[in-house]
Write a structure and sequence with these properties.
With 286 residues, the protein is α+β, with helices and mostly antiparallel strands. The chain is built from ten helices and four strands, in the order ααααβααβββαααα. Helix 2 packs antiparallel against helix 3, helix 2 packs antiparallel against helix 8 and helix 3 packs across helix 4. Its EC number is 1.6.5.3.
């Protein structure tokens, strides 16, 4: 098997590219915002993630100028900042439209029609995942999981949920975004642009229209069931009724071998129940 390593195929070119420096006015404004963010942390380098959102709000993606700004403010190297920035998928490496539309095709969303939604949007927008429409309004993204399986299939716009989608409703969604008739998220307040959302994630004030969302009914179903049946997790430190003291024995056993090296791989696989050695009805493998 051959595995080709490198940046994501939907983001060609250098991992991060663009302008190398900011104009003086932009740098001054970002510095004031950065000071507000950094002051919240006892160690300055802990502010790196929100600072990356701050420069992403400025540029619409990460640029060498943004990386250098974060590094200088936090006393880090450009390489250290880049290593973090390229690890998290919420930091974009290519210019992003006003609305980042992510379609989930992980297991449950795929079963419920996620692949069909992604294919429909590719044809409808005439772009592939990772690309932006000519008007700069929509960037299409293929995501692994939106962590909202109870409302599958889900489409996210700037990380706001649009639940129980179909190919037709997804097309209506992006048409509304392109025409300026911004739809309301299924469980959120008002939808913000990508740069506005990045600024909110940096921990700074968002637009006046930004409001908190609500929890959907499907998400609360398990909690309702637990309360109706008086179900609760065991109190901290108390053994579970089902373990009959086994938890304490396991803890003692783990403590006794914690400093021993892990066992080496064995050449022989122990016989298992159901094989020819233990099951007279089993037949030899060809």
């Amino acid at each position: 098997m051959f595995l080709e390593l490198g940046q994501r195929p939907d983001e060609p070119g250098p991992p991060i590219h663009g302008p190398a420096t900011y104009p003086a006015a932009v740098h001054e404004r970002l510095t004031a915002d950065a000071e507000t963010i950094i002051a919240r942390y006892p160690q300055t380098r802990s502010a790196l993630l929100p600072l990356l959102h701050l420069v992403q709000a400025q540029d619409g993606c990460l640029t060498p100028a943004g990386i250098a700004f974060c590094a200088h403010r936090l006393g880090l190297t450009d390489a250290e900042v880049t290593a973090v920035a390229t690890f998290y998928s919420m930091y974009r490496r290519t210019p992003t439209g006003e609305y980042l539309v992510g379609v989930c095709t992980n297991t449950l969303c795929a079963v419920m029609g996620g692949d069909a939604i992604l294919e429909s949007l590719e044809q409808h927008l005439d772009i592939a995942p990772g690309q932006t429409t000519a008007d700069g309004r929509i960037t299409l993204e293929h995501v692994e999981c939106n962590a909202a399986c109870d409302f599958a299939p889900v489409v996210m716009v700037n990380w706001d949920f649009f639940d129980n989608q179909t190919p037709a409703s997804a097309r209506e969604l992006v048409d509304g975004l392109r025409s300026g008739q911004t739809p309301a998220p299924s469980r959120g307040g008002s939808l913000c642009t990508f740069r506005e959302t990045s600024r909110i994630l940096a921990g700074l004030d968002g637009p006046d229209s930004a409001t908190a969302g609500t929890v959907g009914e499907a998400t609360l179903a398990g909690l309702r069931f637990a309360r109706e049946h008086r179900m609760a997790a065991p109190a901290a430190g108390s053994p579970s009724d089902t373990t009959a003291g086994g938890g304490q024995e396991q803890a003692v056993a783990a403590e006794s071998v914690k400093d021993e090296p892990a066992p080496a791989p064995e050449a022989d696989v122990p016989a298992r129940s159901g094989t020819a050695e233990t099951d007279p009805e089993a037949t030899d493998a060809p």
